[in-house]
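The record is given unchanged here:
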Amino acid sequence: MVDPGNQRQRVKPAWLNQYELVGKIGEGTYGLVYLARSKHPQHRGVRIAIKKFKQSKEGDGVSPTAIREIMLLRECVHENIVKLVDVHINYVDMSLYLAFDYAEHDLYEIIRHHREKLSSPINQYTVKSLLWQILNGLNYLHSNWIIHRDLKPSNILVMGEGEEQGVVKIGDFGLARVHQAPLKPLCDNGVVVTIWYRAPELLLGAKHYTSAVDMWAVGCIFAELLTLKPLFQGIEDKNGPNPFQADQLEKIFKTLGHPTPDRWPTLLNLPYWQANRSYIQGKKYENPGLYSIVQQPAKSPAFDLLSKMLEYDPAKRISASQALDHHYFRTEPLPGRNALVPGSPGEKAVQYPQRPVDYSTDFDGSGAPPQSNSNLAPLQQQQQMQRNDHMMQVPQMHQQLHMQGMQRISQSSNMGNYGVGGQQGRRKEPDAATSRTESSADMTRSGAELDGRKFSLLSLCDQRYRAVGA
């Protein structure tokens, strides 16, 4: 009798022939991420990140996280949003794979490199260019009624090679959703945003929230780019679904001072402010000063912008569109499209390390050797040669960004011609992923039903996406 597990490993979907596996580059709560090279004649050798999603909790269908990512990214076309290249499904185990343009870097690794290897701050031009592009992509999302809800350094990708070198890509849309006229309070979606980047209205139990939660997260990222460490590094209490996080709020209040009804009129309406008011106000903090932490003069443009991003009242918090017009971006050095080149003559370019690759993992996540295993040594040599050649090139000075009007989402899907063959990938997920609570039971369909009734993956996702009002 054939072991079903062994049979499942031997049956490889036809779509796998489109790629040459290099190795695994990430692993998280909701799946694995692989690095592969395209075999398509027009894109041969182009590197692709392939995210493999685990099944839903019921084990019989498509992950709600994957559905969100597909339905939003197939509509989003913008230079600062990660590009979804293809979608595949393996009917043998109902695993789903998403193929993306590969980004060599992310902000988490860039910040870590400066903190642990270089022991030096990120230059002003790079900080300003990265921040401008984050805001540019976020403005596109917010202009189209999309809240990301999981912005943090590891989800901000940066291209490392080719025509898009130094271009920011906002990634990981597993928690993103459309918020125009929501069918139910957004708090019903469960806890969102990784705790260090979570806005105070979320921590205090707001029933409804807006795109301002993304702007708070961008403010935290901005401060981290300036200081090389998280601004509000609280310890998360994971006992129960209560969004109130005392330690995280304490870290915020120590830096920004206590919020007051005068400063934040709707504060009194937040359930966990009322329930914990005496505890919160019983804490006294001396000389709170954000400017001393980020080491920016209190009257500098950088500090002014950061303060507006970290405004307690979400109604007063600066929007992405307003932030793009802030005078911080009108002062020297001006932001550029390639954030990784030197910002001034004579300055050396920083060579950031590329993602580590586990060459011993197959597409199914097992320890089996990957495809083309016999060519691993030459492949690694080729990658190192390419990287060395790239390091020896004299980088050009930055190209100034053009401040232009926002592009709206097209009504037609840019993935309409994609069929179902089987697809993959994903980088390590944040703490926020553990709190995703949307029901996956009514967002799944068995493999037999899919095959028998010949549903396409995208039509299935359309139905499920509409069903949950996402």
